[in-house]
Amino acid sequence: MSPTHVRPFALIPSRSLIYLPPSTIKSRASLSVRNHSKVHCRSSGRMSAVPVDIIEKSKQLAAWTAVDNHILPADKIIGIGSGSTVPYVVERILAQGAEVNKGRVFIPTGFQSRQLIVEAQLTLGDVSQYPVLDVTIDGADEVDHELNSIKGGGACQLQEKVLAEAAKTWVMVADYRKNSETLGTNWKQGIPIEVVPFAYAGVLRKLHSIGSPTAHLRMAKMKAGPVVTDNGNFVIDAPFAVEQMKEPAKLLTQLKLITGIVEVGLFCNLAKAAYFGNQDGSVTIKWNNGRVEQISKE
Ligand SMILES: O=C[C@H](O)[C@H](O)[C@H](O)COP(=O)(O)O
């Protein structure tokens, strides 16, 4: 059985979800998934030797399992996060059918997820209209053993955190490369920090003095100058030593007190669960009570 044929909801018999075979899934969201033989690994900056098919299937499996477990017919206000795993979230939501989706409103965490919602012809809403969400599913750059995470590899952390805090249930989805014990183990670029543009130089100096000597402004790839977020701000990537990364909530508090920082890509004590698709077609679910569940492919 291939990873895409796993029926995760079967493990939760109390939920009466109907299995939708992959052949029934036809969405615009799926069109954005390309089939390269290799994939660029943002965490190491190198090319991964793992075929992209396996990584994409791992993402899809995590996303589908999370949707099956957490987006129930009663859920009406739904947050859609950012990143490369999220198209599979939308794909699986679409597979729940037009009838159930008709009564739902979808809130994006940025331009990318807004486009996904619009292209999927789902109803778009705004967090200012719907400050309480039933559930938000989002990607992650790295997740530790206590469900703390680094987010913001795509510079979306501010809106993502607003939606994470607004959601009654916040869940992360990712492939196996994001699952680690301590933050900073796999994700080496540092913590993405959104800053007000005019304050960036001062914030950098401060970061250098409190344990991140290599903190730097994130530069754009196909544009001269810095990355500009959906909110018109800059992003600083700030690597910290392992000792500081072992206490992410403490570090987060310290960073939030620096004037000019708008939001920090450390998400602490927010998640209900994190889903990781594995290379062998299984899914690892880390729950906020410390339980780790392994769902095998039969
Ligand atoms: O800013 C971007 C978000 O935090 C993403 O959720 C995160 O970077 C993971 O993205 P991807 O799934 O593409 O690795």
Topology, pairings included?
Elements: H1 28-31, E1 39-40, E2 47-48, H2 52-70, E3 77-80, H3 86-95, H4 98-102, E4 105-108, H5 111-119, E5 133-138, E6 142-143, E7 149-150, H6 157-166, E8 167-175, E9 191-195, H7 200-209, E10 216-217, E11 234-238, H8 242-245, H9 248-256, E12 261-264, E13 266-267, E14 273-277, E15 283-287, E16 292-295
Helix pairs in contact: 2-3
The structure holds ribose-5-phosphate.
Protein name: Ribose-5-phosphate isomerase
Catalytic activity: aldehydo-D-ribose 5-phosphate = D-ribulose 5-phosphate
Pathway: Carbohydrate degradation; pentose phosphate pathway; D-ribose 5-phosphate from D-ribulose 5-phosphate (non-oxidative stage): step 1/1
Task: Give a quick precis of the structure.
This protein has 298 residues and is an alpha/beta fold. The chain is built from 9 helices and 16 strands.
Question: Would you mind describing this structure in some detail?
Answer:
The chain folds into two domains: 3-181 and 269-295, Rossmann fold (3-Layer(aba) Sandwich), CATH 3.40.50; 191-265, Alpha-Beta Plaits (2-Layer Sandwich). 27% of the residues lie in helices and 21% in strands. It is built from nine helices and 16 strands. The chain has helices at residues 28-31, 52-70, 86-95, 98-102, 111-119, 157-166, 200-209, 242-245, 248-256; strands at residues 39-40, 47-48, 77-80, 105-108, 133-138, 142-143, 149-150, 167-175, 191-195, 216-217, 234-238, 261-264, 266-267, 273-277, 283-287, 292-295. The strands form four sheets. The protein has a seven-stranded mixed β-sheet, sandwiched between helices. Strands 10-11-9-12 form a four-stranded antiparallel β-sheet. α2 (52-70) packs across α3 (86-95). The longest helix is centred in the first third of the chain and has 19 residues, at 52-70. The model is unreliable at 1-47 (pLDDT under 50). Pathway: Carbohydrate degradation; pentose phosphate pathway; D-ribose 5-phosphate from D-ribulose 5-phosphate (non-oxidative stage): step 1/1. Belongs to the ribose 5-phosphate isomerase family. One of its GO terms (molecular function) is ribose-5-phosphate isomerase activity.
